[in-house]
Amino acid sequence: MTGICWLLLAGLASAVFAEPMVHFREQFEDGDEWQTRWVESKHKSDYGKFRLTAGKFFGDEEKDKGLQTSEDAKFYAISSRFEPFTNEGQILVIQFTVKHEQNIDCGGGYIKLFPADLKQEEMHGDSTYFIMFGPDICGTGNKKVHVIFNYKDKNHLINKDIRCKDDEFTHLYTLIVHPNNTYEVKIDNAKVESGTLEEDWDFLPAKRILDPNATKPEDWDEREQIDDPDDRRPDDWEEIEHITDPDAKRPDDWDAEMDGEWEPPMIPNPKYKGIWKPRKIDNPNFKGEWVQPEIDNPEYVPDDKIYKYENIGVIGLDLWQVKSGTIFDNFLITNDEILAEEIANETWGVTTEAEKKMKELQEEEEKKKQDDKDEKSTAEDKVAVEEEEEEEVEADEEDDEEKEPDEDEDVEEEEEEELEETEKTESSPKDEL
C-alpha cells in the first residue's frame, strides 16, 4: 500500500473513529530503567519487592522480562504514571500478560486503573480506583477474572463468572470498554465474555419493580385441586386404630385396692382403614398462581455514560500473594482494540509457543535426571543387597566350620563306647569259667 493511500484511509478512519492513541505501554526493555517509571508504595513498611526477570522458562529471555513478585506471603503495591486522559466517546483497552510460573495457590494477578491524583507513595488496598481487571486465584474453587468498575464512588463486581487460566504459562488478558456501554473480555486474544455494562453489573436500579400497591384479589383461587364436595365417607369406614381386647379377662387375683382399676389391654383394630379423606377433583375456580404485577421503577434513570472516566492517569499492581513468583509484562492502555490485538501478536504471540517448548524441554531434562538418579540408586541398592548376601554366606560358612570339630568329637566318643561294649561282650564267658 502506498503512503498516499495509507494517509487517505487514515483520514477516512479518523472521521469515523477516534485517532488511535497509546496512553501507556510498558515492556521493560531497558533494564533497570523501569525503576524510574514505577513507584513502590511506602504506605506499609513490609510490602513485597518486585524484581525484573523472564523467570525460569521463557520464549525470549529479553522480551519476556517483567516485574516478578519475589517474597511469599506479602502485599505488593507499585504503580506507574502516564499522561492523564478521559475515555469519553472512545474505546478503552486495558491489556497485560500474567505468568504464574510458581503454580500459584492463592494470590492476585490483576491491575488497577487509578485517577491521576493518586499519591503513588501512599497507594494501598483502600485507594480509590476506576477499574480493577485481571485474574485472581485462591484454592480450587476461586479461579476468576475480576472486572470491577467504580461507579458513583462504589465498586461494582461483574455478575458473571469468568474463569481465568491457572497453569504456569504466560497468558494475555484484555478488557475492552466501548462508548456504547458494552464490553468484552479476552484471554489469549480470544473472547471469553461480553455484554452490556447495565445488564452485567448492578450500576443502576432495576428498570421494573413489583407494584407495591398491587394486592391479590380476595376471590383469587390458587388451588389447582379441591376436595370433592359430593364425596361421602362410607358408613363402615373405621378410623379407630386401636381397640380394647374383647377377649381379655381381669385376673382372678386382681386387687383393685392394691393394683388400681383394671383396664383391658389395647389391640390393633382389624377393621381400621386409616383417616378417611375425600377424593380430589380439579378446581373449577382455579386461576393459577397470582403474580404481583410490575411497574416502571420511578428511581431508575438511564445513564449512557456509565463507561466514562475522567482524569485516568495511573496503572498499578495492588495485590496479595501467598506464594510469590508471578511475572507481569506487556502493559498496554489504548483506544484501539485492533492495535491492541496487533501488539499482542507481536509480543505475547511471538514467544508463547517457545516458552511452552522450553518448559517441556526442562521437564524432560528433569525427568531424565530423576530417572538416572533412580537408576543409580537402584544399582547401589542392588550392590548393597549382594554384599549383604555375601556377608551372610560367609557368616554361615564360619558357623559351619566352628560346628565341625564338635561333630568329630561326638563320632569319636560313639566309636569308643562301641569298642568298650564289644570288649565287655568278648570277656564275659571267660569270667564265668
TrEMBL record:
Q: Which PROSITE patterns has this protein been placed in?
A: CALRETICULIN_1, CALRETICULIN_2
Looking up InterPro entries in the UniProt record yields: Calret/calnex (IPR001580), Calret/calnex_CS (IPR018124), Calreticulin (IPR009169), Calreticulin/calnexin_P_dom_sf (IPR009033), ConA-like_dom_sf (IPR013320)
Subcellular localization is given as:
Cell surface; Cytoplasm, Cytosol; Cytoplasmic vesicle, Secretory vesicle, Cortical granule; Endoplasmic reticulum lumen
Residues reported to bind Ca(2+):
27, 63, 65, 329
Q: What is its main location?
A: other
Subunit structure comment from the entry: Monomer.
The UniProt similarity line reads: Belongs to the calreticulin family.
PANTHER family recorded: CALRETICULIN, CALRETICULIN AND CALNEXIN
Protein name (record): Calreticulin
Q: What organism is listed for this UniProt entry?
A: Pleurodeles waltl (Iberian ribbed newt)
